[in-house]
Amino acid sequence: MKKVGVAILGLGVVGGGTYKALTEHREFYKKNHGVDIVVESVLERNKERAASLGVERNAIAQNIGEICNNPQVDIVVEVLGGVEPAKSFVLAVLNAGKSVVTSNKELFCKYWHELEEAAKLNGCGLFYEATCVGGVPIIRSLLDTLQVNKITSLTGIVNSTTNYILTKMTDSGMTYKDALKKAQSLGYAEADPKMDVDGFDPVYKLSILSSLAFHTKVPYTKIYREGITEIDSTDLLYGKRLGYVLKLLAIGKNTDSGIEVRVHPALIKSTHPLAGVNDSYNAVYISGDCVEDVMLYGRGAGALPTASAIASDIIYFATHDNFNYTTFENTENADPATKFITDFKSAYYIRLQAYDMGAQTKAKSVLEKYGITAEPVIFENSGVKGVGTIIFVTDETSESNIHKAVEEINSCKGLVSVASLIRVCQ
Amino acid sequence: MKKVGVAILGLGVVGGGTYKALTEHREFYKKNHGVDIVVESVLERNKERAASLGVERNAIAQNIGEICNNPQVDIVVEVLGGVEPAKSFVLAVLNAGKSVVTSNKELFCKYWHELEEAAKLNGCGLFYEATCVGGVPIIRSLLDTLQVNKITSLTGIVNSTTNYILTKMTDSGMTYKDALKKAQSLGYAEADPKMDVDGFDPVYKLSILSSLAFHTKVPYTKIYREGITEIDSTDLLYGKRLGYVLKLLAIGKNTDSGIEVRVHPALIKSTHPLAGVNDSYNAVYISGDCVEDVMLYGRGAGALPTASAIASDIIYFATHDNFNYTTFENTENADPATKFITDFKSAYYIRLQAYDMGAQTKAKSVLEKYGITAEPVIFENSGVKGVGTIIFVTDETSESNIHKAVEEINSCKGLVSVASLIRVCQ
C-alpha cells in the first residue's frame, strides 16, 4: 500500500483538527482510498499542546530544516496563518521537493504566483482547498467541475465571523458592539477582529475565488473593501420590513465591460438562497453560461470542517499522479488586458433623516436630478409634522452618481440628511 | 496542444446541449485548459436534427462500430438514456479502448459494476458526473473532496420534475393532476411521467450517491420507493401552516445499526436549507464527521446544466493522467456484511377525519397504546359538533409501529379515520 508522510506546521485550532482528523481516519483512508496517511512530523513550539494531541516527542521537529530533510515527509500542511514565517517555510519545503497544502488565505492570496512557481519548478503539488470557505468544496469545484463554464458572477458569504455577527444583529436586534462581544466570547471572533470585520479576510478569499472563476489573475489590491463596523441595527430592522437581509457579500462579476470585484455589506432579497445562510455558515453562489446557478453551502470555518478540506487535498495528492495548479497564467499582477470596473453600479437603500415637511420632495428631486429613479418605501413620522425617517430604494445607478446625490442631499442642512446608504444586491 | 476527440451518442436535449457547449467553448478550453476538444462523430438517426445543430454530414456515424473504429475518437458521451442499446454501445466503445462519459442514471445505477470492470480492463476512464443532479458538482465532490469524511447522512431533492410539481402545488394550491399537466406542457415532465412521479429516477440517483457517500455498494433494489401521485394539496396547505414544506426526498443514512435508503415525500421544516429548493432546482445536503453540514445546490436538469457536467468530465479526462472510478468495491450486489434497515424510524404527520366527538381522544389513546407520543396540532371543526379535521405530529417511531396504529385507528369505523400519513424529516 502506498504510504504518504505528512508534516503539519502549527498545531493551533486548524492544525490540531487536522492532526486529529488524519490520525483518527487512518484506517478509513487505507480501506477506502488504498493509501496509508501517516503524520510523520509537526512543527509546534508549544510542546504541551503537541503532547496533549498525542504527538510523540520524536515527531516534534525543532525547526523547518528538519522537516525539509526528513525523507519520510511527502507533503507539508501549512496552517500557521499570516505571511511570515509561513512564506519562508512553504518555499523551503517546496524547494526541498515536498508538496504543500495550505489553509493560509493571506499568504496564498498575496504570494500565489511565487508559491506556484516554486511548486512547478520542483514538480510538487500545491493545494489550497482550505483557504476558502472551510470544508465547502469550492476550489476543487472551480478547478475540476465548474471549470468548463464562462462564469459571469460569483457572490459569496465567505467570512464566518461577520456572518455570525450580522445574524445576531438581525435575529435579536443586538448592536454591532454587543454582537461582536458575543462572537468574541464564543471564540468566533479574534480579540483584534480587524481582519474579519474590516473585510480583509473576505477580500483575500474573493481574490482567490474570482481568479479561478474568471480564469485570470484578480489581485486582492483590485478589490473594493468595506467592512461591517458602521452597520446600524436600525437598518437591519428596516431591511427586514422591506424583505431584505443584510449580509457581508463578496461579489465578483465578469462582464463584457470588465471585471468588478468588491466586498461590502449589502441588502439581499430574503428569498435569495444566500439570505438563509446564517451564523457561521458560508456559501458561494455562482452563475455560469452552461451550469446556470449553483450554490455551495457549508461551515465556513472551524477545526474539523477546515481539516476536511486539508485532508481531501492530501488524499487527492496521494491518489492522483498529476496536479493542476490553476487554469490561468498566475502572474503577480493582473493581465494588462484585463479591465477592472471601479465605478460599479448598484441599487441603493437610503435612509434619510427628515427635519422638515419638504424633506421627501427635496430628496426625490435631488435623486431625479442625478437620473436616479427611487420611490420612498417607508415613511415614519416622529410625531412632529414632517419630521421623521424616510427610506428610498433606488434603481441601479453608479457609485459616483449616488455619492454626488448624497452629498447634495446632505447640503440641505436643517431640511434632510442621509443617515444610511446601503447597497442592494439584485 | 493536446487534442481530444469526442463522439456523442444521441443528440436529444442533453446530447444537443453537449454538442453546442463543446463546439462553442472550443477556444475557451484551448485558452484555459490547454486542450483542443473536437467533436469528431455523433450517432443520431435523425439526420435533420444533427444538421440543424451544425453537425457536418461526414461526422454522422452510421452505427456504433464506426465510432469504435474511429481512431480520432478518444472519449464517447452516452446520452441515450435507458438500458438498451445504451449498455451494448457503452461496452463496445470501452472494449474498443475509448473512455466514456454518461448521463444515463438508469444504465449506470443498474450496471455500474459491469461498466467499471470493462473500463478498468481496457484502461479507460468512466465518468458519470451528469448522472446525478445536473450541473451540481456532487459526484466529483464525493470522489475528490468530501471523500475523507465518514458521511452519516445524505438528503437530496434530486428530481426536477417532481420538485417543480410540488412547488406549484405548494405555491398556488394546484392539485397534483393540474400541476403535472402544467409540467408536461412546459416540457418539465414526460408524456409518461412514471419514471419521475413514481420515484424511480431519484432511486437510481440515490443508489449512485449513497454508494459513493457510504463507500459501499447500495443497490437500487435496496431502496424504499414511494412517489408523489397520492399527494393531496390539502396536506401541503396544512403543512405550510405548521411550518413545513413537502418535498420528494432521497434519504440515505449510515449509522452503526446499518444503512437506510429511501425515496418518499416528506414534510421538512421551512427553515431547513432544503425547504427553499424550488421549481427545477435540486440540492443534496450532506453530513460528514469532519465537514459537518454541506449543501450543493443548482439546476437538477436541463440541456446546458447537464452539458456542464459532461464537459467537465471531458476536460477532467483531458487534463488528468489517471482516473478514480469509485472508492468502494463495485460489486453487483451489496457487500454481505452491510446491514440494511428496512423498518426505519421517522416522525409522522397524521391527518384524521373525525366523525364524532370522541375521535381525538380515541386516536390519541391508540397512538399511546403503540408508544407513540403525539399532540394534536390542528383541530378544525366542520360545523357539526366533534366532526372535522384533526392533525397530529408524532415523535419518532418505526414504520411498522405507525402502520399498526393507523390500522387500529381505521378500524374505529364511524368514529375516526386516517386521511393522510406523511413522514416528517427532522
Helix/strand class of chain A: alpha/beta
Name the shape of chain A in a single word: elongated
How widely separated are the two ends of chain A? 53 Å
> Radius of gyration of chain A, rounded?
24 Å
Sketch the major β-sheet of chain A.
11 strands, mixed
Name the helicity range of chain A: 25-40%
Quaternary structure classification = homodimer
Helical stretch tally of chain A? 15
Largest binding interface between chains: A-B, 57 and 57 residues
Number of strands of chain A: 16
Mean pLDDT score of chain A:
96
The share of residues in extended strands of chain A comes to 25-35%
Q: pLDDT below 50 for ≥5 consecutive residues: which ranges of chain A?
A: none
Give an overview in words.
The structure is a homodimer of 426-residue chains. With 426 residues, chain A is α/β, with parallel strands linked by helices. Chain A is built from 15 helices and 16 strands. In chain A, the strands form two sheets. In chain A, strands 6, 7, 8, 9, 10, 11, 12, 13, 14, 15 and 16 form an eleven-stranded mixed β-sheet that branches. The longest helix of chain A is centred in the N-terminal third of the chain and has 17 residues. Chain A is elongated, with a radius of gyration of 24 Å. The termini of chain A are far apart. The mean pLDDT of chain A is 96. Chains A and B meet through helix 2, helix 7, strand 11 and helix 13 of A and helix 2, helix 7, strand 11 and helix 13 of B. Strand 11 of chain A pairs antiparallel with strand 11 of chain B, so a sheet runs across the interface.
